[in-house]
Structure formats: structure tokens, C-alpha cells
Amino acid sequence: MTTMQEQEHDFWDKLPEYVKMDVEEAKIQSERGEGKTTDEVMNKYKRWLAK
User: Fold this and answer.
1) Are the C-beta atoms of 42 and 49 separated by less than 8 Å?
2) Which residues of the chain fall short of a pLDDT of 70?
3) Among 15, 13, 16, 35, CA closest to 25
4) Alpha helices per DSSP H over 1-51
5) Do 27 and 19 contact (CB within 8 A), yes or no?
6) For the chain, what is the radius of gyration of the CA atoms?
7) Segments of the chain assigned E as strands
């Protein structure tokens, strides 16, 4: 049986390099407070979600 940490590691290893780079950049932006909350995003796109 594999642990959750092992499964996450396997998943990360299978991602293309450009996806890994984008995830790392998003983490850095989030740490700088540049991200948006789920509520902010959901409110912005409500009209598309209501269809």
C-alpha cells in the first residue's frame, strides 16, 4: 500500500515540466499575496456558471 505522500510524489513526477514551472510560479505569487480567493473568482464568473 502506498502513502498519500508517495502518491502525490508520483503525480508530480508525471507532470510535464512546463506545468511544474507554472505551479511553482503560482505558489510564489500566492506567497506574495498576488492570488485571488475562490470567492473572488466565483463572483467574477457567476454568469457563466449559472447557465
Assistant:
1) yes
2) 1-8, 51
3) 35
4) 4-14, 17-31, 38-44, 46-49
5) no
6) 16
7) none
Please work out, in degrees rounded to the nearest 5, the angle formed at the alpha carbon of residue 28 by the alpha carbons of 40 and 49: 25
What is the spatial distance between Cα 51 and Cα 45, in angstroms, rounded to a whole number? 11
3 Rama sector, left if φ>0, alpha if ψ -120 to 50, beta otherwise: beta
Nearest to 27 by CA among 35, 19, 15: 35
Which pTM was predicted? Answer: 0.57
Q: Which three cell numbers stand for residue 15?
A: 507532470
Fill in the amino acid letter for 23. V
Residue with cell 505569487: 29
